[in-house]
């Protein structure tokens, strides 16, 4: 097949494995690399068309620096699927990839994509975004199928932040359900959560409308309502009285929202941006408030108009 691409996936976790399944189903040549792989990264990327980063945030700088030392074809497209923020610089993963490889196109993939559902072959949709449209279109073709609908988008920062910021709200949504606060409370939380995501995202340089698409609202609905989400699970179990240490001991995989909350708090304080839900999630994760106290703090804030805050 002439359109068959060579795809190297970095990270053999839940998401890397699901992305590999999708590309393989479209007859692409797929190699998954992990820290424990017997094949060297150098050998694997030799004939790669696309390098997909599906490592968790804490591994991004590490894999970037490993690749920087290798001879790479100038045609290679980097695709980043990590939903996190760098604790040191507050940069997004795509900003780190682009800075390290300024002459390569970088594409972001993000959307309501719970990996377990994708591995069960349930239908889903996602977004691939890049400043280089042709690169986004190549990635779109590689992953599109009758069970995975892929849209392109020209706002990579907005798409990336949509998937990243919603993890904080997914923790809050888990708390809401764990406390059994009801459907009205959940709707209020998710709606005001989206407002908060838009506020910081637009300040950061993203387009407002991107947050109303699959990677913002779409992913917020998926993770904020699903026990399959690790971030939701963190919130739910905190509300049930478990400590964060206990929860993380048993959690399968990464809940990026924990680190993202800390980075967001730092950035919103530096830039004086109001993020009341994020702030309460932060205090809760630090064990500085109980879930009920966090709820009361939010309910008793100064009353105000819905917009023009
Ligand atoms: N699981 C999902 O449903 C899903 C969906 C969309 C996006 N994501 C995002 O994808 C990323 C990965 O999620 P996941 O669910 O696969 O997590 P996971 O915990 O299952 O896997 C993380 C992977 O990163 C690797 N890794 C971590 N540090 C590394 C390092 N220094 N060097 C090399 N590899 C390293 C781990 O070995 C592991 O293979 C996260 O940012 C997550 O938010 C996950
Ligand atoms: O399990 P979570 O909370 O990392 O959510 C996974 C994905 O981000 C869903 O789109």
From TrEMBL:
GO CC terms in record: cytosol
Domain Glycerol-3-phosphate dehydrogenase NAD-dependent C-terminal: 155-295
SUPFAM superfamilies: 6-phosphogluconate dehydrogenase C-terminal domain-like, NAD(P)-binding Rossmann-fold domains
The keyword Nucleotide-binding appears for this protein: yes
Compartments where found: Cytoplasm
EC code: 1.1.1.94
Residues annotated for sn-glycerol 3-phosphate binding in this entry: 83, 111, 166, 219, 229-231
Keywords tagged on the record: Cytoplasm, Lipid biosynthesis, Lipid metabolism, NAD, NADP, Nucleotide-binding, Oxidoreductase, Phospholipid biosynthesis, Phospholipid metabolism
Domain Glycerol-3-phosphate dehydrogenase NAD-dependent N-terminal: 7-38, 40-134
Chain residues that bind substrate: 83, 230-231
Amino acids binding NADPH: 15, 35-36, 83, 115, 230, 256
Positions of the catalytic residues: 166 (proton acceptor)
Pathway: Membrane lipid metabolism; glycerophospholipid metabolism
InterPro entries given in the database record: 6-PGluconate_DH-like_C_sf, 6PGD_dom2, G3P_DH_NAD-dep, G3P_DH_NAD-dep_C, G3P_DH_NAD-dep_N, NAD(P)-bd_dom_sf
Enzyme class label: oxidoreductase
Task performed by this protein: Catalyzes the reduction of the glycolytic intermediate dihydroxyacetone phosphate (DHAP) to sn-glycerol 3-phosphate (G3P), the key precursor for phospholipid synthesis.
Protein name, entry field: Glycerol-3-phosphate dehydrogenase [NAD(P)+]
Source organism of the structure: Fischerella major NIES-592
